[in-house]
Design goal:
By secondary structure, the protein is an alpha+beta fold. The chain has two domains: about 60 residues, no CATH class; about 170 residues, no CATH class. It is built from seven helices and eleven strands. Strands 4, 5, 6, 10 and 11 form a five-stranded antiparallel β-sheet that branches. The chain is globular. It starts with a strand and ends with a helix.
Length: about 250
């Protein structure tokens, strides 16, 4: 599209190829997009690969802004309902999944609600050889290893229900034959997945970009919340509230 400052372009930038879910969607004139790309790469190196949100440059060369609230959760699953998870007797049959949900709604980070979403003392899903991916409206991505398309669809929708960003369809379902056409990888045995832990990572500021912009160095709060209890412990809500407290 032609604008007053030249042709408007939209590009996707992945600063670290080893972390493909950290992507930035840039829109603007060629000069503005080039400047924003340079800024992203410089900030990525400066912040040691910390996530600085979704960056947007419009055709009027407005300052780069962010849509991130700084909170993400990582849900951890194992093939057993109760710990210990990595004993010698269990190790061969165990399998772990880690599902990351960025830009979480604070009101949705609730022990009872998340436990209900992902099994509620029963199996959440099966982990297999297939990958399902889906984009969010802020440029981030959800991803999970699953056994069937239906499992994948269900788990992605449940993950997305916790995020402030909207789910973008269609989903991408990638079977083993596609990412391993020569059969070099051993097939994975299908393993049930039970929710064990939630890791909450909370940047201690209003937005992630705020720290990147001011240069103020702040540490990220992180803690593990246990989900293998059959019912919610009396102290659990206080633990989650303390972690999410904004200062």
């Amino acid at each position: 599209r032609e604008g007053l400052l030249g042709r408007t372009r939209t590009i996707e930038v992945t600063p670290n190829k080893e972390v493909p879910e950290e992507r930035f969607i840039l829109t603007g004139n060629e000069s503005g997009v080039r400047t924003a790309t340079t800024t992203i790469l410089a900030q990525q190196q400066l912040l040691n690969n910390r996530d600085v949100g979704t960056l947007i440059v419009d055709s009027n060369s407005e300052p780069v802004v962010t849509t991130s609230n700084g909170i993400e959760i990582m849900l951890e699953f194992f093939a057993y309902e109760q710990p210990p998870y990595w004993t010698k007797a269990r190790e061969k049959k165990n399998a772990r999944s880690r599902l990351t949900v960025p830009n979480c709604q604070i009101s949705k980070i609730d022990w009872s609600e998340i436990k209900q979403l992902f099994g509620n003392n029963t199996k959440s899903h099966d982990k297999g050889d297939s990958i399902i991916e889906a984009d969010l409206s802020n440029g981030k991505m959800l991803k999970a290893w699953v056994h069937t398309k239906q499992d994948g669809k269900t788990i992605i929708e449940r993950m997305a229900s916790l995020s402030e960003a909207k789910l973008v369809r269609p989903f991408r379902f990638i079977e083993k034959e596609e990412y391993d056409p020569n059969g070099e990888l051993d097939p994975k045995e299908v393993r049930p997945q039970y929710l064990a832990h939630m890791h909450i990572k909370n940047w201690n500021r209003k937005t992630k970009y705020e720290t990147a912009n001011t240069g103020t160095k702040q540490k990220r709060k992180s803690a593990r919340v246990e989900f293998y209890y059959e019912t919610k412990p009396s102290w659990m809500d206080d633990k989650v509230r303390e972690l999410l407290k904004q200062t």
